[in-house]
Amino acid sequence: MAKKRTHSTGPFRERAILVGVNVRSQGDYWALEDSLAELSELARAAGANPVERVTQSMHKPSPTYVGKGKIEELAHTVKHTEVDTVIFDDELSPNQQKTLEDKLGVKVIDRTALILDVFAQRAWSREGRLQIELAQTEYLLPRLAGQWSHLERLGGGVGTRGPGETQIETDRRLVRRKLSRVKKEIAQVQSQRDQQRMQRTGGNAKIVSLVGYTNAGKSALFNKITSSGVIERNQLFSTLDTTTRKMWLPSGVSATISDTVGFVHKLPPILVAAFRATLEEALEADLLLQVVDVSSPYAAEQAQVVSDQLADMGIGDTPKILVLNKLDLVASSSDEPLALSMLEQIDVSQFTRVVTTSATKGWGMSDLREAIEAEIAEPGVDTSADMIGQNV
Fold first, then answer.
1. Which residue range forms the structural domain that includes residue 236?
2. Which are the contacts of 162, defined by CB distance < 8 A and separation ≥ 6?
3. Which residues are annotated as a binding site for Mg(2+)?
4. Do 233 and 90 share a structural domain?
5. Which residues carry a binding-site annotation for GTP?
6. Are 159 and 258 members of one domain?
C-alpha cells in the first residue's frame, strides 16, 4: 500500500529518487556513492527532496542506462514512495529519457538538467542569464521530439507525417534562431569584457584567478584578500559571474584578482562551452589559485576534477598555487598541520606552492599574498621567495 504524504506548510519540494550506475569497464576515481552524495546536494540546491537512492553495477553500458530488471524495480519504488521525479547521475540521451519516462510514469531528468536548473536559479547578471539560456537551449534542441506527447499516439511513419512533425520542425527553427541570437549577445558581452580587462590592467598588470570546486570558499577568500563584498554562501554555485578587483601585495605593487564559477564532477560540456566567456579571466591569468575545501571528505577527488577540467580547457600549464582552505573546520588553530595530510592524496607536482588558509578566520592571508607576489614578480625582483608558503 502506498504511503500517504504528510502535508507541510513550507514550500513544495519535489520528492526524488536518485539513480546511479557503476560501469566496471569505465573506471572512475570518483566512487559511485560519493557521486550520488553530490547529486543529492545538487538536488536539494534545486529544490528537490531526495528520498531514495538506487544503484546498479554493470559490465558495460546499457542502451536504457539501467537494465530491464532495475527499471521494473524503479517503477515499483516510484509507485510506493510517491515520488515526483527520478534523477539519473549521468547525462541521458533523448531516447533514454523518453523510454524511462514511459516506463516509470514520472518526470525523468539527468545530472545535466539538474545542474542547469541550479545554475538558472543562481544566475543574476545579464551575462550569467545569457550563458544559462545558451546551455539550456542547446540541451533542449535534440530533445524537442520528446516534448510532443501527441506524436506518441500518432506513432510516426506512413500516414502520420503531418502537423505534429511540421510543428517540431517549426520549433527547431525557432530554437536555432534563439541560439543564434544568444550567441551574438554573449559575443558582445565578451567583447565588452575584453575591453574592461585591458582598461583594468593597463595592458601589463598581472592577472590572478581563483579557481576551484564549487563551495570551496573561493568567494570568502576573495573578499578577505581584497576587502570586497562578494556574496558568500555555504551552497553550491553561489558564484556564477566573474568578479574582478585590485589587490595590493606586500611590496606595494598591485595585481588584479578574479573570482570565477566553481567546477563540479561531471560538469556538462555544454556548460563548459557556455561559461567559457566567464572563465576567460582564468584563461588569461598569469597565476591560478586553486582553492580546495580541506574539510571535505572528497577534497582529493574535487582537486583532481578541477585539474582535469582546467587541462581540458587548455590552461593546465598555467602556474598554480594550491590553497588548502577552510582550515578552521579541521584544526583548532592556524599552526596545526592537519590540512597538510591532504598532500599525501593530492598530486602536488602540478603546483608551485602550497598555502593553508581559513578565509573565515583570516588565517594564512599574509602567507598567501607573499606567495602570490613571489610567483608573479618580474625577474630580478627580490621577494624572499624562499620564506614564503611551502615550495613543492
1. 205-391
2. 154
3. 219, 239
4. no
5. 212-219, 237-241, 259-262, 325-328, 358-360
6. no
Q: Quick check: is 197 in a domain?
A: no
Query: Cell 573506471 belongs to which residue?
Result: 27
One domain for residues 155 and 272: no
Q: Is residue 21 part of a domain?
A: yes
Dist CA 239 CA 218 (whole Å): 9
Cell of 189: 558581452
Q: How far apart are CA 222 and CA 236, in angstroms?
A: 17
Highest mean pLDDT of the ranges 133-137, 268-272, 366-370: 366-370
Backbone dihedral region for residue 13 (phi beyond 0: left; psi -120 to 50: alpha; all else: beta):
beta
* Residue 186 and residue 131 in contact, taking contact as beta carbons nearer than 8 Å: yes
Whether 357 and 219 map to the same domain: the answer is yes
Tell me what pLDDT residue 4 has. Answer: 43
pTM of the model: 0.76
Q: Does residue 114 share a domain with residue 128?
A: no
CA distance 138 to 111: 15
Q: Are 254 and 205 in contact (CB under 8 A)?
A: yes
- For 58, the grid coordinates are 554493470
Question: Is 306 among the domain residues?
Answer: yes
Distance, CA of 244 to CA of 207 (rounded, Å): 10
| Residues in binding site | 212-219, 237-241, 259-262, 325-328, 358-360
Q: Assess whether 287 and 347 both reside in one domain.
A: yes
My answer on whether 309 and 344 are in the same domain is yes
**Chain segment 332-362, per-residue pLDDT in tens:** 766 556 556 667 788 888 999 999 999 999 9
